[in-house]
Amino acid sequence: MKKFRAVAVTAAVLVLGLTGCTATEVAAPSPTTSRSAEAPVATPTPTPTTEPDLTAVVLSATELILVDEQGDTAALLDFHSADPAAFAEALSAAAGVDAVETTTPGGFEGAEFTTEYEWDGLLISRSYSDECLPQCQSVYLSVDGSHVAGIPIRTASGISVGDSLAEAQALGAQQTPNGWAAEPEDPALIDSESNPTRIVVLNLDEADAAIASLLASGWFLSYGGI
User: Fold this and answer.
1) Domain containing 206: what range?
2) 134 within domain boundaries
3) Would you say the pTM of this structure is higher than 0.85?
4) What does the DSSP 8-state code read for residue 105?
5) Would you state the pLDDT for residue 26?
6) Residue 8 placed within a domain
7) Are the CB atoms for 181 and 191 separated by under 8 Å?
8) How far, in Å, CA of 174 to CA of 202, rounded?
9) Tens of pLDDT along 25-34?
10) Phi-psi region of 28 (alpha: psi -120 to 50; beta: other; left: phi over 0)
11) What's the mean pLDDT in 100-125?
């Protein structure tokens, strides 16, 4: 009987010893997750600044000027002395569109020939006689659009086809005995009834509310026949 108890005690001690060896393991702390690197913020690309396109066709009572991108005169047509051919060539090159050129017999004041250069929005007509150039030539311009192949066309004060009459008046348009006009060669004579001055004629639309066309020639005066 004593022998059994000794064995039992020994077994119990063994069980306790084994139990003491099974200590609960403490889990190692998981490594701290490093903060993910932030995505780089894209730096906005600055919008390049471009110089405005200054190219324009500018009409006065005495001449037609092609202005280039720098604001300089690229070509000039004087209504009294110049052959429009050189100006037409320069304008066609700037616009990228050739003029339709025609020459027919006859013309203003009994001229022998009339040569026309026409783009969409602009007609330049020249009547002349070969034996008396440059005295016996007449240059006539008709503008019925605000652009010539994409190039703005306007008077020297900024009046364009399509502008309202009120806008044209704000830019200096005045009424003469023959109708509305702008760009007088001599502004002091625009209201004179005895001394005329050359002008750009402003034709109005049917409602007399907006500019329908611009006309110019060395012979268009602030009074008298046009």
Assistant:
1) 56-217
2) yes
3) no
4) E
5) 45
6) no
7) no
8) 9
9) 445 455 554 4
10) beta
11) 93
3-state secondary structure 144-162: CCCEECCEEEEECCCCCCC
Total domains present in the chain:
1
> Closest Cα partner for 140 from 164, 163, 116, 158?
116
Q: Which of 169, 168, 158, 149 is nearest to 58 (CA)?
A: 158
Determine, yes or no, domain membership for 104.
yes
CA dihedral defined by 177, 181, 187, 189, rounded to 10 degrees?
-20
Q: Express each pLDDT in 142-196 by its tens digit.
A: 999 999 989 999 999 999 999 999 999 999 999 988 789 999 999 999 888 888 8
The residue to which tokens 């616009």 are assigned: 95
User: Does 4 map to a domain?
Assistant: no
Pairing of strands 174-176, 151-155: unpaired
pLDDT-derived band of residue 39, with 50, 70 and 90 as boundaries?
A: low
Mean pLDDT in residue range 82-98:
93
